[in-house]
Amino acid sequence: MATPPRVYLEADLSEGARVDLSEDQSHYLTQVLRKKADDPVRLFNGRSGEYGASIVEVKKRHTTLLCGAQLRPQSASPDIHLLFAPLKRQRTDMIVEKATELGAAHIQPVFTARTNSDHVRTDRLRAIAVEAAEQTERLDVPVIEEPEPLQSRLFRWPESRRIIFADESGDDDSRAWGGDPGRAPPVAAALQPFTSQDVKWAILIGPEGGFTPEERMHLRGLLHVTPISLGPRILRAETAALAALTIWQSILGDWRT
Amino acid sequence: MATPPRVYLEADLSEGARVDLSEDQSHYLTQVLRKKADDPVRLFNGRSGEYGASIVEVKKRHTTLLCGAQLRPQSASPDIHLLFAPLKRQRTDMIVEKATELGAAHIQPVFTARTNSDHVRTDRLRAIAVEAAEQTERLDVPVIEEPEPLQSRLFRWPESRRIIFADESGDDDSRAWGGDPGRAPPVAAALQPFTSQDVKWAILIGPEGGFTPEERMHLRGLLHVTPISLGPRILRAETAALAALTIWQSILGDWRT
Q1: B247 vs A251: CB contact, 8 Å cut-off?
Q2: Whole-prediction pTM value?
Q3: Where are the domains of chain B?
Q4: Do domains B6-72 and B80-251 have the same CATH topology?
């Protein structure tokens, strides 16, 4: 309950180092959390593990901390990427917050044919990821990549990274289009064969309206794509993202031990 | 994309029946979705499957529909209950919306020692569950139970229903309390032994501050409780609820086929 607050910063950390907080972080720590000189804090920068620290000076616009001992060494996060079609702001924010809690390493918005949102504020998403990482006790912050059209992202895709493609759309429109590829297998069954293989992964989630038949056919035609289904109910896009990440962590990620 | 909107109502449904929508539903259908006479709609009541219908009359405050053929017969939802400690409003709403998408049959707020919210508007949560059920193509709506203290809920618990207890709190305070029960096993490993058994289940999620050491010891002492862990990161309560439901559906529920 009363564990010291965690702060992410970019500065180097080592025992005895003095570090300054940004104005925003300083405001949060001293005005919102009402911390003052001598109060303990924990620091991490994504490279050096977690350090204990204490507040040595509080001024109007900045706070200085003194690093104490390292509390935890840096450890690698699971190498799982998330590609998602941006949604309305609140739901996009939810994806980034929850994907950070669920341990995504990279998060990238991708524009698909039916994506309604064409503007993504990655600075805002980065701030959300930092805050979620601080709360969730992660030692790193996921990389928020700049948005990109799905097509160009797939064109420059490294084939050594497999894509879990949440094939949520009903099959109706593909059938009408003349090429119904059938229902994708349940996610657990689709991932099970890979438990003993050293494969890198990404999860791809479409927009509310689903992928177009053309997009689905294209994805299904790629050898490094694993189509999955997430049960008989239609999930909203953000729910599909969290469910797929959860099951990936449980079967292939760091929830196994 | 252009599938007719779904409306949940309590009226009996049968081919040729005429049904009236409530004022709210009528407003939503005719003002928000801008549907008019002859437009197709789908109806479900949680008992009779799903029916096609068309709008026959639109008046200022009500809309009358004519039931056509049954489109899907009623099918049972997985028998999974969710007990959660109420959070701030937005996060409680998220739990109910997402648990509905993820197929929870019963949802009940329970007050634990560290629950900060003591007021839950179940009418509001019911409306959220109905809207989520309509969107997610479910044929039923989860039952939203009135809130109750965890202790009294456990006292009258039917032992034939096992409880998955997301033991998210760090073990530090239990150790201080003198009785560290050790880390709970990963959720997938904990549930796997039950795949061939016919057991009823509930998922129990604590508040942001976790369960108290006393609550944890009490729960761990019950034979019908299965403690689980949800990975090495600390999840927010609503994330833990969705993750536990997801993995339950994948291992024991209707995501298996």
Answers
A1: no
A2: 0.93
A3: 6-72, 80-251
A4: no
CATH number of A6-72: 2.40.240.20
Q: Quickly name the fold that domain A80-251 has.
A: Alpha/beta knot (3.40.1280)
Q: What is the pLDDT of residues B204-251, one digit of tens each?
A: 999 988 999 999 999 999 999 999 999 999 999 999 999 999 999 999
Checking B141-144 for CB contacts under 8 A at 24+ apart, the result is B141/B8, B141/B46, B141/B100, B142/B99, B142/B100, B142/B104, B142/B105, B142/B106, B142/B107, B143/B105, B143/B106, B143/B107, B144/B96, B144/B107, B144/B108
User: B53-96, pLDDT tens digit by residue?
Assistant: 999 999 888 899 999 999 999 988 899 999 999 999 999 999 99
Q: Does A103 touch chain B (CB under 8 A)?
A: yes
Give the one of A232, A235, A250 whose C-beta lies nearest to B188's C-beta.
Answer: A250
| Helix or strand holding residue B80 (H, E) | strand B80-84
Nearest residue of A to residue B99, measured between CA atoms: A239
Tell me if chain A has a CB within 8 Å of the CB of B209.
yes
